[in-house]
Design goal:
28 strands; Pectinesterase; mainly beta; 8% helix; seven-stranded parallel β-sheet; hydrolase; Pectinesterase_Asp_AS; cell wall biogenesis/degradation; 351 residues
Length: 351
């Protein structure tokens, strides 16, 4: 399923009530066979400070989760109306202006919270599913694709909608874990785990205060955290619309021996910025990988690093491509913060 945050078509987790494990609020605005669902979360303090751009009526629904009556209930043990979230979404009316609320009870999802509530699937490329249709689902929830590294592209989460907001969620997979396809997106305090190109797409994305962990890959593979997919460039793209990692922790899972890089040059205008983040010593000194060891796009891509720290943040051994930049200008770096980069001050409150 594809997640969006354009309206209040959303997936929400309520942590205030210990008897409520996950509440997903969704306005089922469908485009043909595709249903856009976006994830965010509750908890009184978080709601008061988070997603200020929501309509006042929608904010009230988030704050008063205890008083909210669900349209459908999902329970893995059979005590609800459905045993899977996918089945619960299908009855949602097309182009409905009323919020459609899904309450997901305990079952596979043990308890509320990141690493405790898990939605998983195992669709993958090898078994006949395309990257676009691979398994997915979103606050204080873990989204996982369990197909494993031998199944090649195993997307856990794909977002293609304007104003996507994901808060304190985890995304687990191997190759192609998180597909930020396009539009403005904001990930805050999330965990993202994978191996090959596991954060990819062409979205205008900020990952803020996130933990990014490479996993053990297959023999002969290299870990590449990002594979930004910009194919075309406009005049305003020079320092705009770049995926930005801000205040993140970039490392590997314990015991990983796979050589790990910050990114992989996959398209002609690939662009990524890492700023004020911790980079562990597990990251190779070169930092970045070219396309198939060729000179493809080395002068048209834009990779930048600014004021990072940690043993892997040293720039002395970095690639010397024309398109690589060790950013030293704070004015240039400020243009890539949430408020400036994705106009976050117009639709996001402080988290």
């Amino acid at each position: 399923m594809e997640l969006s945050a354009d309206q209040l078509s959303s997936t929400l987790s309520a942590a205030r009530n210990p008897n409520v494990n996950h509440v997903s609020k969704t306005n089922s605005h469908k485009k043909s066979s595709v249903k856009n669902i976006r994830g965010c979360c509750s908890g009184r303090e978080s709601i008061d400070r988070f997603l200020e751009w929501l309509k006042s009526h929608d904010q009230k629904l988030l704050r008063d989760a205890n008083d909210t009556v669900a349209d459908v209930v999902v329970a893995a043990d059979g005590t609800g109306m459905f045993t899977s979230i996918s089945d619960a979404i299908r009855p949602a009316p097309d182009y409905n202006i009323k919020i459609y609320i899904i309450y997901v009870k305990k079952g596979v999802y043990k308890e509320d919270g990141i690493d405790a509530t898990v939605v998983s699937g195992n669709r993958n490329y090898v078994d006949g599913w395309t990257t676009y249709r691979s398994a997915t689902f979103s606050r204080d929830i873990t989204i996982e694709n369990t197909a494993g590294p031998t199944k090649q592209q195993v997307v856990a989460f794909m977002s293609e909608s304007e104003r996507t907001v994901i808060y304190r969620c985890a995304f687990r997979g191997y190759q192609d874990t998180l597909y930020a396809r396009d539009q403005r997106q904001f990930f805050r305090e999330c965990k993202i785990m994978g191996t090959v190109d596991f954060i990819f797409g062409d979205g205008t994305v900020v990952f803020q205060a996130c933990e990014v962990l490479a996993r053990q890959a297959l023999p002969g593979q290299l870990n590449t955290i990002t594979a930004q997919g910009r194919k075309y460039l406009t005049a305003e793209d020079i320092l705009l619309y770049l995926p930005t990692f801000h205040l993140c922790n970039i490392s590997v899972e314990p015991g990983v021996t796979t050589m790990t890089y910050l990114g992989h040059l996959s398209k002609e205008y690939s662009r990524t910025i890492i700023m004020k983040s911790y980079i562990s010593g597990a990251i190779q000194p070169e930092g970045w990988l070219p396309w198939n060891a060729s000179a493809f796009a080395l002068d048209t891509m834009y990779y930048g690093e600014y004021m990072n720290n940690g043993p892997g943040a040293k720039l002395g051994g970095r690639v010397t491509w024309p398109g690589y930049h060790g950013i030293t200008n704070p004015v240039q770096a400020n243009a890539l913060t949430v408020a400036k980069f994705i106009d976050g001050d117009t639709w996001l409150s402080s988290t």
